[in-house]
């Protein structure tokens, strides 16, 4: 199997467990495709054979952390955390979208009906201001748009040292000040903005959420929906 290796605390534990099973001989013939430098490092320490994500257009199975997941649809937001050296939302989404089966591993406080907080958006560095203004107009009154800084305090312009990803893009944090009614519609609106390269919203069918709580673990599957968000017939 080709397995997409996610990023985050839960994914690191899953990578470690996968390595233990390989060493014990319980699993064999596994190749890992990391979503980040962090997951590649954890996999190497765990003895998991690796290959680059650009070498695979189809991955059998992938797991990942998520910052938050929308109830029922299991549409997720990734990329809110600080991007460490070499990390890429583009790489992470490529691996997750290429997977035949995707599992998010989260805690119960990240599984919500009314989402709040930010959606990270990758934009071309040269015309980031134009993209930011268009996004601000899209969600006028519901969100603020700030360019993410690499160091120092955050401000709308990103300070003196804005984040520049390994792909050469700036990161805009679209910070919603009211609940997000429909995350799929937010993603569709962002996709139409000139200068937007990608964003942290991922919608995948089929998808599974493994949700940990103090009372135990629950597993939730999404259902296939059409573009309008209604159950497919």
TrEMBL record:
This is ribose-5-phosphate isomerase. PANTHER family: RIBOSE-5-PHOSPHATE ISOMERASE 3, CHLOROPLASTIC-RELATED (PTHR43748), RIBOSE-5-PHOSPHATE ISOMERASE 4, CHLOROPLASTIC-RELATED (PTHR43748:SF1). Its EC number is 5.3.1.6. Pathway: Carbohydrate degradation; pentose phosphate pathway; D-ribose 5-phosphate from D-ribulose 5-phosphate (non-oxidative stage): step 1/1. GO terms for molecular function: ribose-5-phosphate isomerase activity. Gene3D superfamilies: 3.30.70.260, 3.40.50.1360. It catalyses: aldehydo-D-ribose 5-phosphate = D-ribulose 5-phosphate.
């Amino acid at each position: 199997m080709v397995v997409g290796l996610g990023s985050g605390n839960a994914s690191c534990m899953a990578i470690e467990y996968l390595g233990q099973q390989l060493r014990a001989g319980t699993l064999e013939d596994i190749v890992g495709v990391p979503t980040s430098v962090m997951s590649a490092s954890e996999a190497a320490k765990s003895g998991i054979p690796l290959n680059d994500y650009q070498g695979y257009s189809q991955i059998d199975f992938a797991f990942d952390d998520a910052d938050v997941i929308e109830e029922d649809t299991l549409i997720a937001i990734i990329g809110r955390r600080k991007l460490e050296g070499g990390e890429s939302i583009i790489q992470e989404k490529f691996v997750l979208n290429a997977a035949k089966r995707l599992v998010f591993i989260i805690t119960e406080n990240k599984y919500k009906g009314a989402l709040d907080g930010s959606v990270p958006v990758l934009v071309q560095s040269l015309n980031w201001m134009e993209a930011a203004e268009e996004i601000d107009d899209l969600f006028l009154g519901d969100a603020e748009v700030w360019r993410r800084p690499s160091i120092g305090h955050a401000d709308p312009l990103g300070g003196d040292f804005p984040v520049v990803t390994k792909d050469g893009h700036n990161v805009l944090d679209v910070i919603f000040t009211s609940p997000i009614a429909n995350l799929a519609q937010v993603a569709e609106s962002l996709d139409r903005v000139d200068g937007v390269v990608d964003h942290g919203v991922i919608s995948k069918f089929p998808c599974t959420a493994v949700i940990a709580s103090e009372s135990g673990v629950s597993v939730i599957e999404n259902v296939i929906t059409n573009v309008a968000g209604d159950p497919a017939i």
